[in-house]
Design a protein that fits this description.
The chain is α/β, with parallel strands linked by helices and about 400 residues long. It contains 19 helices and 11 strands. The strands form 2 sheets. A 6-stranded mixed sheet has the order 7-6-8-9-10-11, with helices on both faces. It has a 5-stranded parallel sheet with strand order 2-3-4-1-5, with helices on both faces. The protein is globular. About 35% of the residues are buried.
């Protein structure tokens, strides 16, 4: 039975000319380079973000570079019948064969296993020239099941939704202005980007959200009060980019601050939202200050608010654009080397994003259409001489 399922999932075994028919992603070259080292390679990201497609693109790359199809193994663990193979290490090693050549093993949705971390550790410690590339949809679930097992054994990448440039090439030919509007209204999931009709985009987003609630919240977390969780999401969606007071939210939802904090953590660990904290030289002070919160996909945010109205009539388009700029910053940081904060002084002088990385310290202010240099740039330059300041407007994306 396992062999039959495996052959169905690995069509290149008997069809060398199989057509993968997949769009390239910007992160693909970085992932290709990481096939060459001895570390296992982890791809984490929300459901429907394109992790499986990236695994297939890596398989296509290996085949094109001359790796034998007999040395490439793909397992989608959504099929529960395959799990028995992973529970018996000797049987698994035997399944891979006895040749000395490197084996490339792709494991999709590895969190489906009861003990994925232990499995990966045991295979890695065998030193059998086996390279495992795995994907997972819930960072919360992956962390709970891998714990310390992957330290020093795995390099993990967060797979984000489509970038602006990827959006341009993913659907049928569209202009920059169309791509920009699509992202701000319908987000950046690949399946959503491929749809051409607005109603189909909205239905795709609905399907993604319902799958998230069912698989991540109900099935894994056994969330009891889904109604409270949904109310929290609505509240957060309404104040995207604003300062986030957990105490105020708890009071309005008639729950505890601890519960709000727990739910916010879930939102971050399942790739729905991200909190960023005020920039401060003293890190201890930084993490005790009030953060801001953003959505990692604007389509989900608009679905939660049931608002897909045109940008021309929206009062929140400035917040949408600010949120979009953050997702662009995150999407281009493949190794998660950058630290992102915002800056706010006691007299309420603000800068939207402070990015600390290999390129140094950069201040980014986001404006919908105002091209004037913000006064806040002079203020932060006086505090941090040498900081690079950048004004980002919609012209950076929609001008042809």
């Amino acid at each position: 039975m396992i062999r039959e399922i495996f052959l169905l999932q690995n069509p290149w075994r008997d069809k060398p000319d199989v057509n993968f028919n997949l769009k390239n992603r910007e992160i693909l070259d970085t992932l290709k380079k990481n096939l060459e080292n001895d570390l296992f390679l982890g791809l984490l990201g929300s459901r429907q973000v394109g992790k499986s497609s990236l695994l297939m693109l890596l398989i296509k790359h290996l085949l094109q570079t001359g790796i034998s199809s007999n040395d490439i193994f793909y397992f989608n663990l959504d099929d529960m019948k395959l799990h028995a193979l992973f529970k018996n290490l000797p049987r698994f090693i035997e399944f891979l064969g006895k040749s000395e050549s490197r084996k490339y093993v792709f494991v999709d949705e590895i969190q489906r296993l009861d003990s994925p971390g232990l499995f990966l550790k045991e295979v890695y410690d065998l030193k059998r020239n086996i390279k495992i590339i795995y994907s997972g949809s819930s960072q919360l679930e992956i962390k709970a099941k891998t714990k310390e097992h992957l330290v020093g054994r795995s390099r993990i990448f967060t797979i984000n939704r489509l970038t602006f440039q990827e959006q341009l090439g993913f659907a049928s030919p569209i202009t920059k202005n169309e791509a920009f509007n699509n992202i701000l209204l319908y987000g950046s999931y690949p399946a959503v980007a491929k749809e051409t009709r607005e109603v189909e985009k909205q239905l795709r987003i609905k399907d993604i959200y319902q799958a998230y609630v069912q698989k991540d919240l109900v099935d894994f977390l056994d969330l009891k009060d889904a109604d409270l969780y949904n109310k929290l999401l609505i509240r957060i969606a309404m104040q995207t980019g604003d300062l986030l007071s957990t105490e105020s939210i708890a009071k309005s939802l008639k729950t505890t601050r601890k519960t709000v904090e727990e739910y916010l953590s879930i939102l971050e660990q399942t790739f729905i939202c991200k909190r960023i904290y005020p920039f401060h030289k003293n890190y201890k002070k930084e993490i005790t200050k009030t953060p801001k919160i953003y959505f990692l996909d604007l389509g989900l945010r608009n679905f939660i608010l049931n608002n897909f109205n045109n940008l021309n009539v929206r009062t929140d388009k400035g917040s949408l654009f600010e949120n979009f700029v953050l997702t662009e910053i995150l999407s281009n940081d493949y190794y998660s080397m950058n630290k992102i904060n915002f800056w706010r002084t006691t007299n309420k002088t603000e800068i939207d994003f402070i990015v600390q990385g290999q390129a140094g310290l950069q201040a980014i202010e986001v404006k919908w259409s105002d091209n004037k240099t913000p006064r806040s740039f002079k203020s932060i330059e006086s505090h941090y001489p040498g900081i690079k300041c950048k004004l980002t407007t919609t012209d950076d994306f929609v001008s042809e």
